[in-house]
Automatic annotation (TrEMBL):
InterPro entries: ECF_Sigma-70_Domain, NTF2-like_dom_sf, RNA_pol_sigma-70_dom, RNA_pol_sigma-70_ECF, RNA_pol_sigma70_r2, RNA_pol_sigma70_r4_t2, RNA_pol_sigma_r2, RNA_pol_sigma_r3/r4-like. Transmembrane segments: none annotated. It comes from the Bacteria. Residues 107-158 form the RNA polymerase sigma factor 70 region 4 type domain. This is RNA polymerase sigma factor SigJ. Pfam families: Sigma70_r2, Sigma70_r4_2. GO terms for molecular function: DNA binding; sigma factor activity. SUPFAM superfamilies: NTF2-like, Sigma2 domain of RNA polymerase sigma factors, Sigma3 and sigma4 domains of RNA polymerase sigma factors. It comes from Brevibacillus borstelensis AK1. The lineage of its organism: Bacteria, Bacillati, Bacillota, Bacilli, Bacillales. PANTHER family: ECF RNA POLYMERASE SIGMA FACTOR SIGJ (PTHR30173:SF36), SIGMA 19 FACTOR (PTHR30173). GO terms for biological process: DNA-templated transcription initiation. Residues 6-71 form the RNA polymerase sigma-70 region domain. Interacts transiently with the RNA polymerase catalytic core formed by RpoA, RpoB, RpoC and RpoZ (2 alpha, 1 beta, 1 beta' and 1 omega subunit) to form the RNA polymerase holoenzyme that can initiate transcription.
Length: 286
């Protein structure tokens, strides 16, 4: 199989790993590209298992990237949220198909931020991509027994934070319509009914636009924040529901410019988290 065929065959898998680990589309695509360039330099004829070699090389590059990026994210202004991908039509390329089909929601990507680079790699390879522990050990350079222990620890750590299994897109859309209507009419009672009592709102402005600098905790405070922000919006502010990372999300506009993207996490049918992405660097491709 020549390099172009390998690229077509394995790029979706590699992008799926990289985007989950990094949370940014451009960085994920760059690392996928670098991985294939490395294969060319290494001479693929010397590689017995191409898939394993590609996964190992890419995962190690992601781990190195995250270790470097963590220092930057430690001084990031406010909460750091992943870069969203918006689907505007059914003509999807390979990468868009991966994101739509593989449960790459903003909620799941945001959860990865609580894990170390190695924990993130082991969790993704096992939980999401169903790799065997021996394969994961080979990719990460850890002992098989250590991979089992790390995965078990991560699974327990995230157990209460995982969103509901994917629900029907139309159900999500209808819930968001009720959410938006309640905000528009300042219906606090309905908002409190839709939100989990311990809901958390994260707002990512990256220090470049106005956003909450710390997560907002509890349904009462989140409602107050949402209504307060809405009252201050200009007359040309509008919203629409769109497919964001394979789930129903909200695109907000001010005039013809994208103002922000909002998504939610559902736990037991209630909104357990609200993610507001306003950093303009993360909205360039919307």
């Amino acid at each position: 199989m020549d390099t172009q065929q390998l690229y077509v065959t394995y790029k979706p898998l590699l992008f799926s790993i990289a985007y989950r680990m990094l949370g940014t589309v451009a960085d994920a695509e760059d690392i996928v590209q670098d991985t294939f360039l490395s294969l060319e330099r290494f001479q693929k004829k010397n590689v017995e298992n191409i898939k394993a070699w590609l996964c190992k090389t890419l995962t190690n590059r992601c781990i190195d990237f995250l270790r470097s990026a963590r220092k930057k994210r430690e001084v990031y202004v406010g909460p750091w949220l992943p870069e969203p991908v918006v689907f505007r039509d059914e003509q999807l390329g390979p990468m868009e198909q991966v994101i739509r089909q593989d449960q790459l929601s903003i909620a799941m990507l945001a959860l990865m931020e609580s894990l170390s680079p190695v924990e993130r790699a082991i969790f993704i390879l096992r939980e999401v991509l169903d790799f065997e522990y021996d394969e994961i050990a080979e990719i990460t350079g850890k002992e098989t027994v250590n991979c089992r222990k790390i995965f078990s620890r991560v699974k327990q750590k995230l157990s209460k934070e995982l969103p509901d299994k994917r629900i029907d897109y139309e159900q999500q859309r209808m819930l968001l319509e009720s959410f938006l209507q309640a905000i528009h009419t300042e219906d606090s009672a309905t908002l409190l009914e839709l939100l989990s009592p311990d809901v958390v709102l994260y707002s990512d402005g990256g220090g470049k636009v106005k956003a909450a600098l710390r997560p907002i905790l509890s349904s009462e405070r989140v409602v107050a924040f949402l209504l307060g922000v809405t009252r201050k919006q200009s007359t040309d502010y509008r919203v629409e529901i769109a497919n964001v990372n394979g789930e129903a999300g909200i695109i907000a506009y001010e005039g013809n410019e994208v103002y922000g993207i909002n998504t939610i996490k559902l736990v037991d049918g209630k909104i357990a988290a609200v993610y507001i992405i306003r950093n303009p660097d993360k909205l360039k491709n919307v």
